[in-house]
Protein: Flagellar motor switch protein FliM
Organism: Candidatus Thermokryptus mobilis
Amino acid sequence: MPEILSQQEIDSLLAGLTAGKSPGEIISKREQKEVVPYEFRRPSRVSKNQIRTIQTIHQSFAEMLGYHLTSRLQTPVTIQVENIDQLFYSEYILSIEKPSVIFILSAGEGKGDIIFELGIELGFVLIERLLGGSGDSAFEGKKKMTRALTQIEQSLIRGIIERSCTELEKAWSVVDTYKFKISKYESDPDIVQIAPASEIVLVISFIVSLADKSFRMSMCYPVFVIEDSLTKMTLQKFMGVRRQTPEEYSKYIAERIKTTKIPVSVELGQVEISIEEILNLNVGDVILLNTGVDSEVKIFIAGKLKLYGKPGVFNGKKAVKVTRISNNEE
């Protein structure tokens, strides 16, 4: 059956004839199709829609980790996804500076490992801020910046990475279930082997803004680790991935505050004694305090006097019954 031309095609044909073109030129132009180049040496295994979903997941992770670091370091911290690339694993390893702060994370039983990499400068800034410093001394001299972390420094950074694992699990939960945990720490990227050199990996690069400076960190997913998740990234799933609103984050913080544990201590009384009396103390000696048997005791919350109470016993354990609230002048 001969092909029937549409009205638009007929109009184009007439316009072409008016312009002096032959019917063959017009028809051949209509039949031309756009040629999409294919890179055989670097095949793309993750589609653009899947990339957008992964970017949204990791931007949500970056925001939650930024909120945590702001609270932990007592300074504004913002983290943004810079870009997402598909590379050979060997190319990614060559892009990491030496030494670096590299944590290998297990994605769960039978799922494989991923890499969470912090630049060495960012690592030292985080450590100094955790210890109460300003973070500026991390830039004083090159000698300090070219060494690997000590065991104590690794322990400090490990706490941040463990929290990152928790936030990363939450971010991925809209698509799939992962149980991230620290598997190993390395400072030399050349000895980190989580995939074959020719394996395609997904590299998420972040920009961390802290103390008026910007730093880079990255995550590396071998595609085979998240292959099952990629098949689940339908349009419906993508629409379900979104960032938290300020109201939702305020509610999240309020819930976390409610479960925060605060030390509470009770002061039975005080007394001043001489050094000689202290040196002569023995087992069985009695120290008289400045409070009576029926006197109220002071109750301290996080080191501050907040309540008064009466000591006693409850369910076989020592206890204090609150009698009144302390005013600010006491």
About this structure: The first strand starts at residue 77 and ends at 88. The longest helix spans residues 48-73. The chain has two domains: 48-238, 260-273+290-325. The domain at 48-238 is CATH 3.40.1550.10 (Chemotaxis protein chec).
